[in-house]
Write a structure and sequence with these properties.
This protein is an alpha+beta fold. It is built from two helices and nine strands, in the order αβββββββββα. The longest helix has 29 residues. It starts with a helix and ends in an 8-residue tail after the last helix. The N terminus is likely disordered.
Length: 135
């Protein structure tokens, strides 16, 4: 009987060990952007691309991120456009699912713009953006 009890303890320890290690790895899997994230309160400005299929986000002191949309978001180019955003990453934005973007012109309801991809741009990619198009 003592062996069965010991085996049960060993088996339970192994199961809890697996659960614990899976839980410890979960945040790393959530960061599908190569482990790069920003906090929502670090986002200071934005500018839509000319084709309204993406927008550039000014984050922190000198980071630029690109949020690509699943379709054109023409409301971004309206004169009084402003964003209505919800963050689903607990304040940490790591991938497209963490960022819910809607655009309002202040005259009606906010139109959703579905973010399909979120990318932190390299210095070279930022330099390739014309200055007038940067956030």
């Amino acid at each position: 009987m003592r062996i069965k009890g010991t085996m049960a303890v060993v088996a339970a320890t192994a199961v809890f060990g697996l659960i614990g290690s899976a839980g410890a790895q979960a945040p790393a899997k959530a960061k599908s952007n190569g482990g790069q994230c920003f906090m929502s309160n670090e986002w200071h400005g934005w500018r839509a691309t000319a084709d309204n299929k993406a927008m550039y986000l000014h984050v922190g002191v000198n980071q630029i991120w690109r949020a690509d949309f699943s379709d054109e978001c023409n409301e971004l180019s309206e004169p009084n456009a402003h964003l209505v955003t919800t963050f689903y990453g607990g304040g940490s934005v790591c991938n497209a699912l963490d960022l819910n973007v809607k655009v309002s012109n202040g005259m009606g309801f906010a139109v959703p713009c579905i973010v399909s991809k979120l990318t932190k741009l390299s210095d070279a990619e930022v330099e390739a953006i014309p200055k007038k198009d940067r956030p």
